[in-house]
Amino acid sequence: MERLIERLLFASRWILAPVYLGLSLVLIALAIKFFQEAYHVLSHIWVMKESDMVLTVLSMIDLVLVASLVIMVMFSGYENFVSQIDVEGKDTEIGWMGKLDAGSLKLKVAASIVAISSIHLLKIFMNATEIPNDKLLWYVILHLTFVVSALLMGVLDRITSATKGH
Fold it and tell me: CA-to-CA distance for 158 and 150, rounded, in angstroms?
């Protein structure tokens, strides 16, 4: 009975496979939104104010960062929790694949969230005259919360890895 339960538990990891595959649909949505923004910039380039163009470009960078984060979660999550990705050929090699464990992935996700939050904060500051001061303060507090959380995760990871080494 114990062996059957363990086999079922081990096999249940495959339930995650369609979830990771589903994240590729999110990538399609992000790509559509990215090219929609690119089309908007290119079609209005002669009449668009510089500040509006910068805000649109920041939004596009934000989309790219989120898409990169989705790729990292898809690949490393699949490799860590489901099965090793086995693709052949030099063209298919990605340097970090197989090297991100759950702890490193958390740090990369936290760093990505800080980067995304930084871009949002920059966009907000570019329109600071239109946003009430109390809202600006809350945006900064939220961003600093992400920064402090990421720093603490990094410190805890370093402490944990240092104690494992002793």
Answer: 12
